Amino acid sequence: MPLTFASDESAAVAMHVIENKGLDNWLNRQSDQIAAWVRSTGFTGSLGETLLVPSGSGEIAMVLAGYGSVEKRARGRFHLAHAAVKLPEGAYAIKGLDASRASEESLGWLLASYAFDQYREKKSARAQLVAPDGVDAGRMEAIAAGECLTRDLINTPACDMGPSGLEAACARLAEEFGADIKVVKGEELLSENFPMIHMVGRAAEQKPRLVEMRWGDSGPSLTLVGKGVCFDTGGLNLKPTSAMALMKKDMGGAATVLGLARMIMDIGLKLKLRVLIPAVENSVGGNAFRPGDIIRARNGLTVEINNTDAEGRLVVGDALACGAEEKPDLIISMATLTGAARIAVGADIAPYFTDDGLLAEALDKAGGAVADPVWRMPFHAPYEKLIEPDIADLDNAPRGGMAGAITAALFLRRFASDVRYAHFDIYGWSAGNGPAIPKGGAGQGARALLEALPETLGL
């Protein structure tokens, strides 16, 4: 089902949004029949409650959606999405919702319509919403489509979303929006000076590659780099079974970057967009890279490999170095990079690193405005020594286990020198099963970035 709003408001059923404290006043304005029905069901207006109110002929006359209290709503987001997944097919029009909440709830409703059913014979169908007054329906649909793309890419198993599948997804997106695409793969990576991308992916059946997409010919320049490790066995430092179970999501950075790129192109932001996706599979083989190996990266720095399971920063490093060479106005990297980030802030928050105070201020404001929580983490300079081994410029896996997200971010910053830069260490997965954020692949930080870009880049 497409994540779009219903077009015919005249055929829509009214859905009244009611807080706990407002229920009695609302009932006093209704007919005796409706008031009696609502009271008989025990409906209280609690958050997530949904009630169908029948007409005299047995059809749906209206819907009540509980909106709880301010205190309860503060513990979550997209609250009307509960109604979206409970109501029968049809169109619904919101009544009684504060205008300041309309955009968030409308987006939540669209996102609740998402279902990953490519591998199911039975397809899902959901209720549709009429866009409330004051909501930019086109923008909300573009954002939902971008998030849908991200979820689909992450949810697709590695057998169908290896490096070639990720390249194909980039090509489809480029074709849809008239973008240019270029791919460097296999041994060409060495001649084109992408040694770390080649090294990480060379043991896999599908060739490693760097996919580049360009769109827009005017305005400030934005480069997005997304980690595209389509499956991560850990390499010779093999992961245990439990740690490998979700490794189809290790291309979540690439998926989120492509979702953001789709939003940008669909909305038509006036900027020059460049997307760089290093797409690899970190496999085990006779030619796999080894602990103790040293490699010279694209920017000339040498890197000692102390753990082949810290491969994401290697492929992103080469792509960042390539992106920084053009000195864009802003470069962003997104990667499912460290478990330390999850320990620090949990799975629901997207931690990010930047030295740019204005960018951080814009991101923090935007994250709250669009219900996409982000949190600034420090590029803590005293930890630089932790990523500097004795025999090379950099260490890809510092020993000690402390500050893993920070040391990984410091590693990446070495490849984005002399540019305005931010790095997002995302999780890319929802373990729960909320209505607007179901279990499975999840975008993080993209909506906050989209909201922050106009202020950040002067659009």
What does this structure look like?
By secondary structure, the protein is α/β, with parallel strands linked by helices. The chain contains 16 helices and 19 strands. The strands form four sheets. Strands 6, 7, 8, 9, 10, 13, 14, 15 and 17 form a nine-stranded mixed beta sheet that branches. Strands 2-3-1-4-5 form a five-stranded mixed beta sheet, sandwiched between helices. Strand 11 (294-296) and strand 12 form a beta hairpin. Helix 14 packs across helix 16. The model has no long low-confidence stretch (mean pLDDT 96).
Distance between the termini: 33 Å
How would you sum up the major sheet? Answer: 9 strands, mixed
Give the C-alpha Rg.
24 Å
How large is the share of residues in beta strands?
15-25%
Mean pLDDT: 96
Computed structural class: alpha/beta
User: In DSSP terms, counting alpha (H) and pi (I) runs of 4 or more, how many helices?
Assistant: 16
Oligomeric state of this protein: single chain
Any idea what the shape is? elongated
Secondary structure: number of strands: 19
Low-confidence stretches: none
Which range best describes the helical content: under 10%, 10-25%, 25-40%, 40-55%, 55-70% or over 70%?
A: 25-40%
Topology:
Layout lengths: L12 E6 L4 H6 L3 H10 L8 E5 L5 E7 L3 H4 L7 H6 L4 E5 L6 H11 L15 E2 L7 H19 L7 H15 L2 E6 L2 H4 L3 H7 L7 E7 L5 E6 L1 E5 L8 H4 L7 H16 L4 E11 L11 E3 L5 E3 L7 H13 L5 E6 L3 H7 L4 E5 L2 H13 L4 E4 L16 E2 L8 H10 L7 E5 L3 E2 L9 E2 L4 H12 L2
Helix pairs in contact: 5-6, 6-11, 9-12, 11-16, 12-15, 14-16
